[in-house]
Structures are given as C-alpha cells and as structure tokens.
Specification:
The chain is of the alpha/beta class. It folds into three domains: about 160 residues, UDP-n-acetylglucosamine1-carboxyvinyl-transferase, Chain (Alpha-beta prism); about 160 residues, Enolpyruvate transferase domain (UDP-n-acetylglucosamine1-carboxyvinyl-transferase, Chain); about 240 residues, Spore Coat Polysaccharide Biosynthesis Protein SpsA, Chain A (Alpha-Beta Complex), CATH 3.90.550. About 40% of the residues lie in helices and about 15% in strands. The chain has 20 helices and 20 strands. The strands form six sheets. The chain has a five-stranded mixed sheet with strand order 13-14-18-16-19. A four-stranded mixed sheet has the order 1-8-10-9. Strand 6, helix 5 and strand 7 form a beta-alpha-beta unit. The two termini are about 30 Å apart.
C-alpha cells in the first residue's frame, strides 16, 4: 500500500490566517509544500502589517478567489489604510458584487477600478457598522465567510459546510487538517487504476464539506477505511452503469474529479448545483467537457489522475505543490509492484453488506471473486509492498496462515502489545507447522475460495466477530490441509492500539466468542492457558516456569522486544487475562 501526504486544507489555513490577523496574533508559518493560495494570503497579510496608517499599498491576488474575497472584507475595516486589490485577467472575470454591496451597507468605501461588479478594487479602510446584512443566493459562500471573519453577522438562504467551518473556527482557530479536496484526485486514481492508497492523517471528523468525497466514490467502486494512520482507500468492486446524481452546491471543488471519473468509467452523471462552476479558476463545466486545464489546478489534477493529456501542470501548485511528484512516484511503484496471486477481501459491517453483518459481507466478496485463493484481511492490516508476491507459489493447501508483525510507537502500552503479539504469532506459527494449529493470525488468512464457501455455515453467522477462528475450526473439523507462509518476503503489519481502553475492548470481544468454539483441541489449549495464568495469580512463583518459555517465543518472533518489557508483560498478563475473560463472557453486546 502506498502512503500519500496530502497538503493542509487551504480552506482552513486561509481562515486561520484572517482570524490571526484580526486578533493581532503572529501569523502561522508557511512552507514551500503548502498551497500557493495559502502562501499568497500569508504574504499579503504580512505586507499589510508593515504599512503605516495613511499609506497605500497594492496587492496582487493573481487568480486566488479566496484571497480576493477575504482581503476585500479584511481591508475594508482597516481604518485609515488604502489598498488596491488586483489580479490576473481571469480574476477580473470573477464576480464580487454581492460581497461589495453587503460591505457598502456597513459603511465600507470600496470602488471598482474598471468594470462594475468585478475586480480590481480600490478600498479605503474605515470603521464599519457591525449590523446584520443579508446575502441571498450567494454566488460564492466565501462572500459570507469573508464578512463573518471580520465580525459582521450575515443572514442567508443557503446552508454550507464552508460557512459552518468559518463559524466553528472563530470559536477556536487552532484546528489544522489535511485537505479533503485534494484527496478527491487519489479517489479518482484508485477508481480508475485500482490498488489501494493510504491518505495519511485524513480523518472523518473533519470541518471540511469535501469529506463527502468518500461517499460519492463508493458509487464508483472505492471504499474508505479509517485507521489510526489515516484513510485507506481501496477499489473493491466494479462500477455499475446506473445514473449517479450529485448536487455539487456544497462541494463544487469535487466536480472535476467526479465528472472525469464518471466519464472514464462510462457511468452517467447528473450534476446539479453547478451555478458557481463557470466562475472558478476557469469555467469548470467547459474545461472538464473539453478536457483542457485552462490554468485551473483542479481540472489539471483530474486530467493527470485519469492519465489524460494535460498541457499545463504549473497551475497545480495553487493548491497541491507535491501532486505531480507524488503521482509520478505512485505510477513507478505500480509498474514495479507485483501482482497478488489471489484476491484480497476486506469486509466491513455496514459498508458493503447492506448492514446484514460482516460475515455476510465476506461471503458476498468471496463469492464475487474470480481467483482460486482469497486473502481475508482486516482493514487495519497492511501487506508488505514486496516485489516477490508474484513468485509466491501456493502448494495446494486449503488454508495458509501468514504472520503479522505489529508496529507501533514507544509508549509502554504499545511495547507491551508488541511483546504479547510476538508470543501469539510464534505460538500460531509453531503449532500450525506441526499440523496442530491452535489459533490464526488475526484475520490474516489465505484460503481456498471453494472450501471457504462450503464451510460458511460453520462461521456462526449470529456472532459479529470471529470469522478467522471459526474458519480455522471448520477447516480442521473437515480435515482440510492447513499450512503456514512464514517467510520474510511475504509479511503484513498491524498497528498497535494507542489506548488501553481500545485494546481491552478488542480482547474482550475475542474472549466473548470463545464459548462458541467446538474444536476439542483448541478448547483444551485455551483452557490450559487460562489455568496457567490463574495459577500464577494464586502462586506468583509459577512465573519462574512460565516466563522462560514465553520469553523464548517472544524473542524468536521479535528480537527487538526487551527483557524488561517481556517480564512486565509476564507479571501483568494473568490480571489482563482474567479481566478480558470476565468482560468477554458477561458483555451482552460487542
């Protein structure tokens, strides 16, 4: 899986800059990796701070609509300052009359230099009247945000996540997020080219309205799985040819990526709420229809993500300076990355199963697969991007158990998990190699598709967990061949829990399904482990017998685990087992 660092959200960053300027606070630092629009507004505000009252200054906004709209309102309330806001030729075609008229109602002194209703503008700052104004059917919600940011109350007939973002940030402006608008082009890439991408630090609880891109691209075959590291996006199913209806009123920046993806997939799109698109960096309706960037950063990125010709890539730095570099990198990796000799399925309750349950979703995915073997994987598992997957020779076994390597930080809870997981993994591998598999590696199984489907009824459909262990029991009961793949070239990683609460919830869920096991050997082994730990609670000297055995298991699987961490785990483990056992057996819901 390939990881991508998205730029910061320029919507959030630019609002943060104006709020900082209004409060007289130091402006946030900017870097070359940030969008040009953020650096432009930052520099403009820096210049304004250096101008003395009574002096005049000219600021070139180029084709940055956000800077033009936000600075128009900000400069209007700078008493005693004269500011001329200019831009490029395209900026002079972008209407601003609704915002200017609202500011005029508050006493602002703003003049059009050329054509009425459009930049460039001459602004003489003054103390504004802070009374409520009305903007009905705004051509851009930035008109409203610009006024809100300088403390003018606005009533309007529209609802927009961008307005909500402005209002929330005024309550506390330290929020900084990765850009969901930029994520749209990676959703497009995955929808058109397949594979999976991890969008680092991208999370669902976002202020940004463009987070709806995850919902829109589900209809285009791309599923989103949120893990600690960010959003993992995967193309999991083909796109049907039914009509996709999208209202872009609250997410106009998503139009190029969605429209071009639909066109490439031959999926009909009915787009509404597009009134503002002709007044963006280009006329986006025409640019997308003609497949021409026309100096529009979002159209250019949408064309590149679809492998379509694009004769202008310089404009991309406006919002995403590293996009071309990252796209070239992902293409190089895709060309060298091997092809898996199996289908990877990642079921998730409520996303691809009509809310009927994870195991039902798993059956649907496996039934639709065309390969003989299926890799059943949880959504927090990351397979190694090795160049040797295409060399993997499956010997005809019915089930293969793969090792998982736990990665995590340096906190004590994460290091204890790594030690615990190393012991579990070594026990899994050693018993499976001897034909006596007692457990499997956390839903990290490659199974024969036909054999798994034949044993579907063994999975305890009424229990929303345990598809891996119940599958292991089913294969053992039917006498099917189980092997391990324990080689450095074929590994996967899982991330440690960062909180004790989330760890205990998972382990209680594991313990809660134990009473439903039917395999006598697995039950005997499980009881032996529990009894050994209970004996240690009664007689702590038992640790002298247990610890050398368990420490050897840990060190074989993960030599980096220290003696001290392993010993601490040994001392704490009986209490931990008892807590999970009691919690798991008596919890009514998981």
């Amino acid at each position: 899986m390939i990881s991508i660092d998205l730029p910061i959200s320029k919507s959030i960053a630019n609002r943060r800059l104006i709020i900082q300027a209004m409060h007289g606070d130091p402006l946030m630092e900017v870097t070359c990796a940030m969008p040009d629009d953020v650096r432009l507004l930052h520099d403009a505000l820096g210049q304004l701070r250096q101008v003395q009252q009574g002096q005049s200054i000219t600021i070139d906004c180029h084709n940055c609509g956000t800077a033009m709209r936000f600075l128009t309102a900000y400069c209007a309330q700078l008493d005693g300052y004269e500011v001329v806001l200019t831009g490029d030729n395209r900026m002079y075609e972008r209407p601003i009359q609704q915002e200017v008229e609202a500011l005029h109602q508050c006493g602002a002194q703003i003049m059009y230099i050329d054509k009425d209703g459009f930049p460039p503008l001459r602004i003489v700052g003054t103390k504004l009247l802070r009374h409520k104004v009305t903007i009905q059917r705004p051509l851009s919600t930035q008109f409203i945000s610009a006024l809100l940011l300088i403390g003018i109350e606005v009533t309007t007939d529209v609802q927009s996540p961008y307005i909500s973002m402005t209002q929330q940030m005024q309550k506390g402006y330290d929020t900084m997020e990765r850009d969901w608008s930029a994520a749209a082009f990676w959703y497009e890439y995955v929808a058109l080219h397949g594979g999976e991408v991890l969008l680092n630090e991208l999370q669902p609880d976002s202020l940004q309205g463009d987070r709806v891109v995850a919902d829109l691209f589900r209809a285009l075959g791309v599923e989103t799985y949120f893990i600690n590291a960010g959003a993992r996006i995967v193309r999991e199913h083909a796109t049907d040819k039914s009509l996709l209806q999208v209202d872009f009123r609250c997410c106009p920046d998503l139009y190029p990526a969605v429209a071009i993806t639909c066109r490439q997939l031959h999926k009909p799109l009915q787009a509404t709420g597009t009134d503002a698109l002709p007044y963006k960096e280009s006329n986006r309706l025409e640019s997308v229809a003609q497949s021409l960037p026309n100096a529009d950063h979002r159209v250019a990125m949408a064309l590149l993500a679809a492998d379509l010709p694009c004769d202008d890539t310089d404009c991309i730095t406006k919002s995403y300076p590293l996009f071309s570099q990252q796209l070239n990198k992902i293409k190089q990796i895709s060309h060298t990355q091997s092809t898996y000799p199996f289908t990877i399925v990642i079921p998730r309750r409520g996303i691809n199963d009509d809310n009927l349950g994870k195991k039902y979703a798993l059956r649907q995915l496996i039934s639709a697969a065309t390969t003989d073997y299926i890799w059943m994987m949880d959504d927090d598992v990351q397979p190694s991007v090795a160049s040797k997957w295409d060399r993997l020779k499956l010997s005809g076994a019915d089930m293969y158990i793969l090792p998982l390597r736990m990665q995590g930080g340096s906190s004590l809870i994460e290091r204890l998990q790594q030690a615990e997981y190393a012991a579990m993994q070594e026990l899994t591998m050693q018993t499976a190699k001897r034909g006596r598999a007692v457990m499997c590696s956390g839903a990290n199984l490659i199974v024969n598709r036909t054999r798994w489907l034949e044993g579907y009824e063994d999975l305890h459909i009424e229990i929303p967990s345990g598809d891996d262990m119940f599958a292991l029991e089913s294969f053992r009961r039917r006498g099917l061949r189980i092997e391990v793949i324990d080689e450095p070239d074929y590994t996967a990683t899982i991330t440690a829990h960062t909180s004790l609460r989330s760890l205990l919830r998972q382990r209680m869920r594991w313990a809660g399904k134990a009473p439903h096991y039917t395999d006598a050997y697995i039950l005997r082994c499980g009881c032996a482990v529990v009894l050994a730990n209970l004996c240690q609670l009664v007689c702590p000297l038992v640790v002298l017998i247990k610890f050398p055995v368990e420490y050897s298991l840990i060190k074989k699987r993960d030599p980096k685990v220290s003696f001290g961490v392993a010993l601490l785990l040994e001392v704490l483990y009986p209490f931990y087992v008892l807590l999970c056992l009691v919690g798991g057996l008596f919890r009514k819901q998981w």
